[in-house]
Amino acid sequence: MESNLIRQLSLFGFTQNESKAYVALTKHFPSTGYEISQRSGVPRSAIYDILQRLEVSGIVSTEGTKPVKYTPIPPDQLAIKLASQFEHNIYELRSMFKEYSTDTAEENTWNIKGYTAMIDQARSLIDSAEQSILCSLWSREYDALREQLKGASKRGIETVCFSFTEIKDPGCVLFSYGINEETLRKIWHRQIVLVVDKKHILLGSAEHTTENRSIWTDNPAIRNIALNYIILDMTLYSQRQKKNIEPYSTLFMPEESKGLEALIG
Questions:
Q1: pLDDT at 101
Q2: What is the pLDDT of residue 98?
Q3: Could you tell me if 177 and 260 lie in one domain?
Q4: CA proximity to 233, closest of 210, 249, 217
Q5: Which of 2, 23, 135, 244 is the most buried (most CB within 10 A)?
Q6: Which of residues 76, 100, 124 is at a domain's end?
Q7: Which pLDDT value is given to residue 33?
Q8: Cα–Cα distance between 41 and 23 in angstroms, integer?
Q9: Do 39 and 169 sit in the same domain of this protein?
């Protein structure tokens, strides 16, 4: 558990020794530098420089002089602090990029290699949603994206998920056959289809490997295929389960398909 926490802190710019010192300090405080060194395993020769950097960053505070004792910022406050810094850094980065004039294509397609990269991209797309999210997922991928989907729904984003598998604790509108994932896996390949704001699409295989292949695109043709693919599955579901999905199929249906439906209606 502690090693995972130290690894997670490293993602936010902490060195390994800074992470060890902070984690050790959250367990026993206020503490002297010597005590922190003993409990964290950080060499005594390095601990004071590390604590000084953490103090300058507002992550620890000091009291007394002989000896100086250190107190950590509470973990929940640290999380807020890091989130604020991250948002500020992103804002600064965007501002700097505006200075560069680049010609971008109207349509983009990005190949994604690896399961972890795919999930990270899905989370980013969901967090960026402004109007709607429609997805077709298996339970494992839903679990990985649950917090983002719940957050989107709470923000007022129209969020709808279809799944052949059993989904527990859904945080959005869900249409599910409730099939055991392991049972389905024996006869069907795992995949993901995610459409955000009827514009951004993530689709492909969802195998938990470094060789997994998926794509992100805003190509209109692929968007229509993805939307119609999920809506067809939802329509068949509604017929079999005797449930009304019309409000959602109407909402997400591509404009071109609405015209065809009117002709064959």
A1: 54
A2: 74
A3: yes
A4: 249
A5: 135
A6: 76
A7: 93
A8: 11
A9: no
Helix (H, G, I), strand (E, B) or coil at 204: strand
Query: How distant, in Å, are the alpha carbons of 5, 61, 80, 177 from that of 41?
Result: 16, 21, 27, 52
For residue 53, give every residue at least 6 positions away whose Cβ sits within 8 Å of its Cβ, in sequence order, or none.
18
- pLDDT at residue 4, rounded to an integer: 85
Q: Considering its fold, how many domains does the chain have in total? A: 2
Tokens read off for 180? 């055991």
Residue 71 is part of which domain span?
2-76
Query: Which residues have CB under 8 Å from 43's CB, separation 6+?
Result: 37
Is 106 in a helix, a strand, or coil? coil
Q: What is the model's pLDDT at position 258?
A: 52
Verdict on whether the full-model pTM lies above 0.85: no
The helix/strand/coil state of 158 is: strand
Q: The domain that contains 26 carries what CATH number?
A: 1.10.10.10
Cα pseudo-dihedral 228, 232, 238, 244, rounded to 10 = 20
The answer to whether residues 8 and 57 touch, using CB atoms and an 8 Å cutoff, is no
- Sequence-ordered alpha helix ranges (H) in 28-180: 33-40, 44-56, 75-97, 115-127, 139-154
Residues of the chain with pLDDT under 70: 1, 100-106, 254-265
Do the domain assignments include residue 98?
Answer: no
In this structure, which amino acid lies at residue 13?
Answer: G
